[in-house]
Amino acid sequence: MARIFLEDVTKVFDGEVTAVSNFNLKVTDGEFMVIVGPSGCGKTTTLRLIAGLEKTTSGNIYIGDTLVNDVLPKDRDVAMVFQNYALYPHMTAYQNMAFALKMRKFPRTQINNRIEEAAKLLGIEHLLNRKPKALSGGQRQRVAVGRAIVRNPKAFLLDEPLSNLDAKLRLTTRAEIKGLHHRLQTTFIYVTHDQAEAMTLGERICVMNNGVIQQIADPMEVYQRPINRFVAGFLGTPPMNFFAGYLKLQNDTACLMLGNDTIMLPKPLKPLLKDYRDKEMVMGVRPENISPEHFPGQSNNMIWTTVDIIEPVGNRTDVYLSSQRGDKFIASTAPYTKLKANDTVQMYIDMENVHIFEPGETGKNVTLSKSKSV
């Protein structure tokens, strides 16, 4: 096992396309770190830089206490699991798993022992004589992971390993990967664009956008206290709703004007908003914090809306709404809601859980320093 440290790492392709910019990340020994972000944000490039498949333009990468900028991939003692599994089609599962060990001149007995142990761990003992074309997507994924395990590396690097699986298999395999990390206690860095994978797998998650780290924290910290509007909108299903309005400060109150609707903000927020008087700000509210019912003990902050679509999803119903001024947003309600399309309804906001952002895609969350009692 080993810690991994990226220090001021930048990668520029062809002298003009910056894929990763001033990237600083410390992954502790044995940690499960997830790097998450939209397609093209630089997360796979970051993983390839750690593996040595790409060279840094500037900055340093350490594995353990060793600076590995000029160390060949084969000598970095990390194992990478690719999105497309990268199995040799002419080899059996056993041969695929054994290949790297044979190249390193491991004794046959040791190779057999390692493959037997990994296959048992992954439940693929009965598949070792099959070639990739005779395996399902989930089985190929297990063989690819097994090939990494037998090397007993300092760290595992996983590049969207579940993206080619169907929804049900993704769920079960995700749980298996988490269990595998628990058993191996080895450093994992896992790249995905899937926020559900990030939230459920990562001990910490690193959110990226346009090659830049936006926030690093444990999953619930990122979900409940997003540092900016991008993070708030990226994490969560359905995503956070945003309402742009003008901030008014009067005496001891603060309110956000949303067209004809006035939203009274909690009093503890006013000191944090004193520099934004009469400015355009953005209120963020998660769908579970919008309801056709009053929130206990709160003032009647509500928006008049029209129901556009009702979408039952089992344990909840997502209600797609339009405000009188044209804002589109989503409320997550009880499974058996009485609402129906074209209803005009008041929707109440849980003011204990609102966020106020500066304008712009990465506008900062100005309410982060509020007390937890707000």
Describe the structure.
With 374 residues, this protein is of the alpha+beta class. The protein folds into 2 domains: 230 residues, Rossmann fold; 112 residues, OB fold (Dihydrolipoamide Acetyltransferase, E2P). The chain contains 8 helices and 20 strands. The strands form 4 sheets. The chain has a 6-stranded mixed sheet, with helices on both faces. A 5-stranded antiparallel sheet has the order 13-12-11-14-20. Strands 15-19-16-17-18 form a 5-stranded antiparallel sheet, with no helix packed on it. Strand 16 and strand 17 form a beta hairpin. It is elongated. The model has no long low-confidence stretch (mean pLDDT 92).
Topology:
Blueprint: E1 4-13, E2 17-27, E3 32-36, H1 43-51, E4 58-63, E5 66-67, E6 78-81, H2 93-103, H3 108-122, H4 137-149, E7 155-159, H5 167-184, E8 187-192, H6 195-201, E9 204-209, E10 212-217, H7 219-224, H8 229-234, E11 241-250, E12 253-258, E13 261-265, E14 280-285, E15 290-291, E16 302-312, E17 317-323, E18 328-333, E19 344-349, E20 355-357
Parallel strand pairs: 3-8, 3-9, 6-7, 7-8
Antiparallel strand pairs: 1-2, 1-4, 4-5, 9-10, 11-12, 11-14, 12-13, 14-20, 15-19, 16-17, 16-19, 17-18
Helix pairs in contact: 2-3, 2-4, 3-4
